[in-house]
Amino acid sequence: MIPRYLVDFNLNELPRVRTEVLVIGAGIAGLFTALKAAERYKVTMITKKTLLDSNTRYAQGGIAAVTAPDDSPACHSQDTLLAGAGLCSRSAVDVLVHEGPAGVKDLISMGTQFDQEHGTFALTKEGAHSRRRILHANGDATGAEIVRALSTRTKQDNNIEVWDDHFVIDLITDSGECMGGLVQTPNGRMIFVQADATILCTGGAGQLFRYTTNPDIATGDGIAIAYRAGALIQDVEFIQFHPTALCYPGAPRFLISEAVRGEGAVLRNIHGHRFMEKYHPLLELAPRDIVARAIVDEMEETKSTFVYIDFTHEAEHTVKQRFPTIYEFCLTYGLDLSSDWIPVAPAAHYMMGGVRTDLHGETEVRRLFACGEVSSTGVHGANRLASNSLSEAIVFGRRIIDRIHQLAPLARRICIMDYEARTEPARQPIVEKKLKLQKLMLRHVGVKRTAKGLQQGCRELRRQLPIFSTCMTKREEYEFANLLTCALLIADAALLREESRGGHYREDFPEKNDLIWQKHTVFSREHGALGGRIEDV
């Protein structure tokens, strides 16, 4: 069993810092929620690197919200529910589509500058959206613009204290209530940060896989520390593999935004044949899980490691203006988006599941909240609709602060934590362990899964469990422990769900089975797998 805490400590012997709201992580969820909290509270914000290092920074497509006269919340809701493949919470989706526009206004008031045409928002369309409702900034640099605006405001806010380059090892709980976090400073010291409310904004776990669009900080920390603290983990078998990440020697798996296909780009196999008509009537704008599997099928059929995305029908100046970031990045590797077919392949991109929350972002652990990709609010179901992630972060960030307003201050009690004596050092270098885990996840828990592969994956992952009995002191050791925790949860959930739905595809159970499996998979550290169900389908 995974232990309650990763390290030994005596809480009474640690330095203690008191704050009202502790925000763990940056990105749109952390920055936005910290700014909303700071309107009333003192906030301590902890980042693994800096305010600028997060998944949000790499978000290209944009943010989905109803702003056009020919659009409606009902239409946005229908698109979200269809993409979610029967596992969305209708009440959570209603919250998203009705409160999203107000969240966008908040972003604008905080300094975000979205692209405009003729005095109105320049809207684009992405896969599985029935309307043009995606707001974007600087063409294809929406995330970078949001991070720029919010981080600038955060640095200027006297109620927010930012701790860069710190690491939250674990959450401290007492009688089912979160009291704050155990934090490691850059020089290796441990500090107990006590807080009236703790908000996890730690993003996803793309580093579980060998190929990912996520930065190196996306190691599933929030899910793992919440799991150890007693929160419930929901639907983590649903991993979104972005269909079109650059696949070129020497280049990272750079995202080629879905908006490129939204503007008319087509997919071709290595023989030059357009193939999506074989797989879905929406062609290149089918839901991401369908496009990703179609690409993998074509790669297997043609014995290739990639397919092409073809945007050459568009004029060069239009490509440069609409997708300047993608154009310039590809150009550094000798690829011209306006005249070359760009080699792409699926890469791990987003987790639909995560730490289960209610409609105000609160987990089963009192005073512990989760916001953004780390959370499972019920909005995304089995497959996230494109550009709903940024919307979710601002909508539920606002709701978390509303809930915090109702909390009484944390009692200033002192608890003495029990701790085990860990003395054995880790033997195999962590970098080797991480690479082995990433390859294992890609092979057995990737786009296509089988019982045999998942069982083998689970066995191999469990061989790594002895790391929890070692004396961990370094950040990379904590990160690997968190990755291993997430990997085990995902593999177990994928093995349990004997059907195919959204971002989870079983070759041995290729059909969706609503009669048995239209329900959530939920895991508890103490009680294992719990039976979930859908209340409002």
TrEMBL record:
GO terms for cellular component: cytoplasm. The active site is at R288. GO terms for molecular function: L-aspartate oxidase activity; steroid dehydrogenase activity, acting on the CH-CH group of donors. Its main location: cytoplasm. Its EC number is 1.4.3.16. It holds the Pfam family Succ_DH_flav_C. It is an enzyme of class 1 (oxidoreductase). The keyword Oxidoreductase applies. Residues 21-390 form the FAD-dependent oxidoreductase 2 FAD-binding domain. It is found in: Cytoplasm. It comes from the Bacteria. GO terms for biological process: 'de novo' NAD+ biosynthetic process from L-aspartate. Residues 436-526 form the Fumarate reductase/succinate dehydrogenase flavoprotein-like C-terminal domain. It catalyses: L-aspartate + O2 = iminosuccinate + H2O2. Pathway: Cofactor biosynthesis; NAD(+) biosynthesis; iminoaspartate from L-aspartate (oxidase route): step 1/1. Its cofactor is FAD. Keywords: FAD, Flavoprotein, Oxidoreductase, Pyridine nucleotide biosynthesis. Catalyzes the oxidation of L-aspartate to iminoaspartate. NCBIfam families: nadB (TIGR00551), PRK07512.1 (NF005701). Belongs to the FAD-dependent oxidoreductase 2 family. NadB subfamily. This is L-aspartate oxidase. It comes from Paenibacillus xerothermodurans.
